[in-house]
Amino acid sequence: MTIVSGDLRPRAAIDAAWEFVNGARRTKLQRVTSLDAHRAAREAGAEAARLAARSAGDAASAAYLHPIAKATQVGHILRAAASAARVAELNAGGDPAVGDMMIDQARQRATPTLIAVLCRYPLAPTAKNRVAQLMSTLDASLRASR
Asked: How many CB atoms sit inside 10 A of residue 100's CB?
C-alpha cells in the first residue's frame, strides 16, 4: 500500500511493526520508520491518505510505549481505530453514525490485555477534530468496560 504514488514510508512502518509483533527485538527500525510514516502523513493531501500514513507510523511507534504515563501515548494505542472510523465516515459521505458504529466495533474487539495496557495511561488528549473525538469516545468506553 502506498499513500502517495511511490511513497513507501508507511508500508515500511507497517513492516517494522510486524517484525516487532512477530518476536524481533525492538530496534531503531521501528522508531525511524515511524517518524518517516508520520512525515508522509504530513505530506499527504487527502485526509484518508494522511490518516492511513499516521496510523502506519503509530503502529511502529507502539513498540516504544513509555513506562512514563503520558496521555500522548494513548494515540499510539487507539488512534488507528479512530482514524479507520473517520475514513469510514468519509466514505459514507461524512455520516458520523458510521464512525460511531466503527468505534463500537473496535470496542467489542478490544482484548483484556489492550484494555489493561490502556489503563496504565491517562485519558486520551482532547481536541476538536473528529479523529480526536472518536479516540476519546473509544478510550472512555474501553475504560468503562473494565
From this structure: 15
- As a three-state string, the secondary structure of 46-106 is CHHHHHHHHHHHHHHHHHHCCCCCCHHHHHHHHHHHHHHHHHHHHHCCCCHHHHHHHHHHH
User: For the chain, what are the domain ranges?
Assistant: 7-64, 67-145
Element at 134 (helix H, strand E): helix 130-144
Interval 10-50: pLDDT, tens: 999 999 999 999 999 999 999 999 999 999 999 998 899 99
Give me the long-range contacts of 13-17 (CB less than 8 A, separation at least 24): 13/37, 13/56, 13/57, 13/59, 13/60, 14/56, 14/59, 14/60, 16/60, 16/63, 17/56, 17/59, 17/60, 17/62, 17/63
